[in-house]
Queue: 3 jobs
Job 1
Amino acid sequence: MRQRQSNVVALLAPNLANPAMSTIAASTEEALRRVGHVMVLCDTHDRADLQDEYLAAMAAQLVRSVIFLGAVASPALRAASEAGEVFLFVNRRNPHDERAPFVGIDNRGAGAAVAAHFLANGHAPLAVIHSDHSSSAVRDRTYGFIDVLTKAGIAPEMLMRLSAPGDDHLDIGYQAAAAIVAAPQRPRAVLCTSDLIAYGAHRLLTEAGLAVPDDVVLVGIDGNPINPWLAPWLSSVVIPYEDYGPVIVDSLERIWAGEDPGERLLPYAFG
């Protein structure tokens, strides 16, 4: 502590109830432990005030680094970023400076892959369900999807963009899917920007008497390992969350060495 440095690394997660977040956290903890570091895990619940509270608390504890596993815009993060403090951002880019070190996937490419899949299978009309959160992941997945459809000549009226307020992806999917049921021309296929959104949408659709995928095709982005067991109806873009830990630690070690790790994009697969 006399050197104002410890072997403790903080990971600030937005929602540990999300299997994707807990998988990344477990992978990161294991990778840090292998290089002699201890991880402190905090759940910000996607709240800017809690994120800032944890950021201040971790600074007081002299943690060596802070990893943001889904950052939101907040006054303290903005001030720290403008002051030149270096953090590592995972899944979502720094909302105040998207050039900051990042580990994740090509979210725009993932959305585009789903659009290409829908076009190849002749699905129309189409829809996308996303949270109203202005994160880079939501934005890029949605825009990547729409961009491919636009270039393919899909008219705007043939694409429904659906969302619902709140941070609970299950509830967002459930509430937004009501518009699918009520639509005069029901979408044949729907991109859900997370698997949890797809789970919520599936429940509403089945309650309305619709079969998935026979009546409506749902595709998520995450590739939750429980899908084959509990959601065999769901196709998903599979993200290797269990492999994030070593990449995160390698990026941290580059930061500690005074280097800029830049962005580290992991592969994804449509499954």
Job 2
Amino acid sequence: MVRNLDITTLRSFVAVAEYGGVTRAAGFLHLTQSAVSMQMKRLEELLGLELLDRSGRTIALTAEGEQMLGYARKMVALNDEVISRLTDQAFEGEVLLGVPHDVVHPVIPQVLKRFSLSYPRVNVNLCTSNTRDLKTEFSRGAFDLILTTETGAGEGGETIHSMPLRWVGAPDGAVWRQRPLRLGFCRNCSFRPVATAALDQAGIEWEMALDSDSDRTVEATVSADLAVGVLLEGTQPSYQELIGQGCGLPELPMQHINLYGAERVRAPYVEELAEFIRQGFQGLWAAPLRAAS
């Protein structure tokens, strides 16, 4: 008797494996938890194998499940490639999305990948800039959706996540000990006035180490231990580290990641992208603090 594997069921199996459980997989797939559970049961019955280990508090793959996962990923990928190659590639819509460069990773690439699977014929035009310029262009109608990093939310803004703002420097750096404190910021960086106000309030003298519009120039200067900077905790690159709170620099306020434009969407897929963004940031957690010494 010929037995056929269902691509939809295999896609659900891959999601369960990658998201670590039925509940999160169901959210990703826009299915009910019971529907995904039934798919897993039918797949196991079809193969006559136990693919999921349900004995613990969380679901894990059995040895057979691990083997099946490799095949399932290949079959789903091949299915998507066939559909992509053999169907009309003309875009049927576009979303203009603006995001500050420091909150692009890790959420936005995952959101774009997920959105592309749901709306393969809708193009997302991603633009990265600073919060000030993004809000200005948004007010002129240049974007459908924007994200911002702010200490509060402006009119029409929806706070979808909050993250601590931290001082950063070079690994094992010492420039944070110098006075006046040397700072590295772009001219239009929204964190710049926040940091200087905190230093002024703490009575710490400071000076700008550079005057640039280039984020790369600022990164190089901070990474060379020629200045300290400020980033959202968890977004610092591997060649920089957080400066511990016991090092004498003032504590900085929480920053809110705000979403603008969701309340005035014109197409259903724009609202869907907004929801994907919300869900992506809801899955974030704060990175542990590494203290410089």
Job 3
Amino acid sequence: MRGRTNAGLVAGGALVGLVVLTAVASFFWTPHDPTLVDAAQKLREPGGGYPLGADKFGRDTFSQLMVGARTTLYVGVVAVGIAAVLGVPLGMIAGMTPRGWLSELIMRVNDLVFAFPALLLAVMFGAVYGAGTLTAMIAIGVATVPAFARVARAATLQVMVTDYVLAARAAGRRRPAIAVRHVLPNIGSMLIVQASVSFAIAILAEAALSFLGFGTRPPTPSWGRMLQESQELLFSTPRLALWPGLAIALAVLGFNLLGDGLRDYLDPKLRRIR
């Protein structure tokens, strides 16, 4: 069990590290300008300064993948940040007042938001505010709030019945102090795991939104839009869809493996089994 856990954690960390390294490198160097349209290089095969070839507009595929990694991470970080900032406090409040009307209200609203997938929210937001990266980030973030709220509430309920919390309540500590000093540090590991899993979901959602035209707008490179632009050449030039599809798959796999590995490593019950 320990070998499998370490292998998953290491593999996930390596894949995530590769995506992050690629995104950081794109700030300082790319083989070509990823937005430069060069008709002379249209559908150029790999080689001669174009490691992965060029697309139907003559843009370097490798450069687009590098900058697309930056876009993907940017959307994921902001979306998961929005979800955590909104969902964790709500979940903690609901967990610390499990029999109150406020807890019931929070969880019922949480269920209502959970019924709307990120794609539908993005379409709604795009119709009102216009499609774009900001719209995608907000839609994905709002759609992920219920997941963080549920995890935070479940973990808070477990912490609230521990001896040290009961002692703190008997000593007259107020709920905000208990939340900051006792609850949040003890549910942090679960939230880290949830953030990793939510990041994988955010990557898929951003790619899907860009594919449908509700995500990142041209000329900013995006893995999802690279797939959308390659669909008409899927049979004649399949490599145009292969590379962005592979990048999305590896990024999602990396964050999922990282989340599973962190869960197994940080969960004390699984640690005792090992």
